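In the design runs reported in the main text, the only information available to the sequence generator was the tokenized backbone. The following block is the verbatim input for one such run; it is reproduced so that readers can re-run the procedure and compare outputs position by position.
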């Protein structure tokens, strides 16, 4: 236990002084009653109450005083408390293939709807971030519990040309807690070239076994036509204890979409997303409400016991108030007074 103001502990010396004062007050009340009573009638008119009826309320009052004086030192204790450590990066495909209308109104809007449902189902203390990707990826919202910020940014996403499925996994891993300085292997976007100086020379090596749980939820039509080998990216995620879940947005057979005044055939590849989820030790989720709800609830909670520094002032003040209320109730019942 630690104290923000340890010098205030000297105030606890007032507790024995208060005991002496309460004892004197009780004796004075008794002497006052005797002074106005006929000595010959004392036995029949004045009944001596059990000592416990005086001592118990007095002890409770002193306990309350002790708690309040102890609170002034602002004590803190380190306790192991359960905390939801779940952190999820949502990776949203914003390539032009997501404008295909094989699901209404189009793939991108359906994906946004899935994300909104996930945000709705996830516990409020689940940290969620957003990565958008097309030919490259960018973490547009860091992991946060600020739902309005996430949803506002979601509505502002814009489409671009090609699709790299490796980039969002790399960006998502490094956006999760404890992994910002994770070195990117050769062959992946952001990897250091031979001879290139490390931008984080003082960064401590990351022990994957100490990292909090993390996951990436990848929403795409599975059509990757640019970027690095996605298998390298998934292995990078596994190294840093990040599971990859996928949601395929689209319909088998693809669709024809009019983009910039021209018709394009846009394929759909759910198999690629299944392989990514399998390699990433996650799950390929069907775009069905029941399946989504089940996985979303699992992703949103990861309870871990964590040492947490907790200030005890409010708890002690509450106990002091409770002790005072109990003491006042006893005095009211036994002595027809509050103190």
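Verbatim output:
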């Amino acid at each position: 236990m630690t104290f923000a103001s340890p010098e205030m502990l000297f105030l606890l010396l007032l507790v024995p002084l208060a005991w002496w004062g309460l004892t004197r007050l009780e004796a004075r009340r008794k002497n006052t009653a005797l002074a106005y009573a006929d000595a010959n009638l004392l036995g029949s008119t004045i009944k001596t109450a059990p000592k416990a009826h005086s001592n118990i309320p007095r002890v409770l009052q002193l306990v309350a005083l002790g708690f309040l004086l102890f609170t002034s030192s602002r004590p803190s204790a380190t306790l192991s408390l359960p905390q939801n450590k779940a952190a999820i990066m949502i990776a949203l495909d914003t390539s032009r293939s997501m404008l295909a209308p094989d699901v209404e109104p189009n793939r991108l809007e359906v994906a946004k709807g899935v994300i909104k449902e996930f945000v709705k189902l996830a516990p409020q203390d689940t940290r969620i971030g957003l990565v958008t990707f097309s030919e490259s990826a960018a973490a547009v919202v860091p992991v946060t519990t600020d739902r309005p910020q996430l949803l506002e940014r979601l509505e502002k996403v814009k489409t671009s040309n090609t699709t790299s499925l490796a980039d969002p996994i790399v960006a998502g891993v490094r956006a999760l807690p404890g992994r910002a300085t994770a070195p990117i292997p050769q062959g992946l976007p952001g990897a250091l070239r031979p001879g290139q100086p490390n931008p984080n020379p003082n960064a401590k090596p990351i022990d994957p076994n100490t990292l909090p749980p993390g996951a990436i939820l990848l929403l795409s039509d599975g059509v990757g036509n640019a970027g690095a080998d996605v298998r390298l990216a998934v292995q990078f995620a596994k190294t840093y204890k990040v599971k990859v879940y996928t949601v395929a947005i689209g319909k088998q057979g693809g669709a024809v979409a009019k983009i910039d005044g021209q018709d394009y055939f846009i394929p759909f590849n759910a198999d690629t997303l299944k392989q990514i989820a399998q390699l990433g030790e996650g799950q390929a989720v069907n775009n069905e409400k029941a399946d989504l709800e089940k996985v979303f609830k699992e992703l949103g909670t990861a309870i871990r016991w964590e040492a947490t520094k907790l200030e005890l002032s409010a708890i002690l003040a509450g106990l002091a108030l409770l002790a005072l209320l109990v003491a006042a109730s006893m005095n009211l019942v036994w002595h027809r007074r509050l103190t």
